[in-house]
Amino acid sequence: MRLLSIIALLSLFAFSDINIVTSNKNPLKSITIEKLADIYLKKTDNINGIKVIPIDNKDSYNEFCKKVIKKTPKQLHAYWMKEIYRGDKQPPPKLSTSQIEKEIKQNPKVISYSSNKLTGKILFTIR
Q1: Are residues 54 and 100 in contact, defined by beta-carbon separation less than 8 angstroms?
Q2: pLDDT in tens, 65-86
Q3: pTM of the predicted protein model
Q4: Under a CB-based contact definition with an 8 Å cutoff, are residues 56 and 64 in contact?
């Protein structure tokens, strides 16, 4: 019983919160998880008429895939291979947290995520 309690406690720490972040200059005020998934699958490139540029975070990628895209990283890779083969779309670039911070400062259209603290406007937090 004690072992189960320890395992349950550790599983709470296995996944951390993910903040969805954009530039303070971006007029977006909020986003739904469904719209966010569409942005990262490149089914759309705007939210309420505001164009955004998604960037994947190397550090939080696996967790983001599971929580937002609802696919494993392997399934998402297969999705992108199919899209690239068709010539339709390219996946968002994958950058480190520090590189994303620079991109957010340079381009107000950038939207990204991180389980680490990022400078910018937090649209919402996924738990």
Answers
A1: no
A2: 999 999 999 999 999 999 999 9
A3: 0.86
A4: yes
